[in-house]
Amino acid sequence: IVGIVVVGMTFVLVVGGLADLSVPATIACGAILSLGLQPMIGPLPAFLLAVGLAGLIGLLNGGLVGYVGINPIIATLGVGTIGLGIVQAAVGGVIVYGSNPASAEFAKGRLFGIPVVVLIFLVIALVGHFVLSRSFWGRWTLATGGNYSAAEASAVPVRAVKAGAFVITALASGISGGLLGLTLQSARPLIGGGYEFSAITAVVGGG
Questions:
Q1: Number of other residues whose CB lies within 10 A of the CB of residue 90
Q2: Partners of 115 in the β-ladder
Q3: I need a surface site. Which of 15, 28, 38, 112 has the fewest CB within 10 A?
Q4: How far apart are CA 59 and CA 66, in angstroms?
Q5: Is the pLDDT of residue 28 over 70?
Q6: What count of other Cβ atoms lies within 10 Å of the Cβ of residue 54?
């Protein structure tokens, strides 16, 4: 599951050596919401809504870092803490448990002998690779990280690219959190602890 976070964190680091420290909180939000909303709207809508709300955390991070110019460490820590606090208040501040056994079976299941979670990671990794290496957004991301001033002079929307990197990371973290919650069938605020450093280490170590 941490591999999905690595895909997202790659964009943040490539765009300029920044760091997203809201990842643990975003993972926790994804896990808590994907389980907590199941009784009301069902497992799949709950998962999708959890990922979408996680993306809002990234959007706020990106706006503060890319457009306002706030230090990414301060911005992401603050936004992550506030977001997790809101989610915790919404569910009553307790450990959330799953209510749909079928969703757990899916998350723990296998397809052609390969765990479903691994297949989801492979799909996301391939999409991330394509976006970063084959799309105009990927070229903009590399240009912004390589030379911010030169990219800006070349009409690259550097602020939007920087903000977009945080949205991508948040979506990846939300997916990871949702899958983690479905796998464990329980979620608590500290469920995502340490994932941000594991992801940063993997990206830096992988070059």
A1: 13
A2: 110
A3: 112
A4: 10
A5: yes
A6: 33
∠109-181-205 over CA atoms, to 5°? 85
E-state strands within the chain: 96-97, 110-111, 114-115, 186-187
- State both tokens at 196: 């941000």
**Residue 24, pLDDT above cutoff 80:** yes
The answer to whether the beta carbons of residues 124 and 10 sit under 8 Å apart is no
Give burial (CB, 10 Å; 0-12/13-18/19+) of 27.
Answer: buried
Tokens of 174: 């939300």
What letter represents residue 133's amino acid?
S
- Residue 186 backbone dihedrals phi, psi, to 5 degrees: -160, 155
Would you state the structure tokens that stand for residue 160, as one six-digit string? 């939007």
What pLDDT score does 81 carry? 87
Q: What is the pLDDT of residues 68-104, one digit of tens each?
A: 988 888 999 899 889 888 887 877 777 888 888 888 8
Question: CB-hemisphere CA count at 13 Å for 187?
Answer: 35
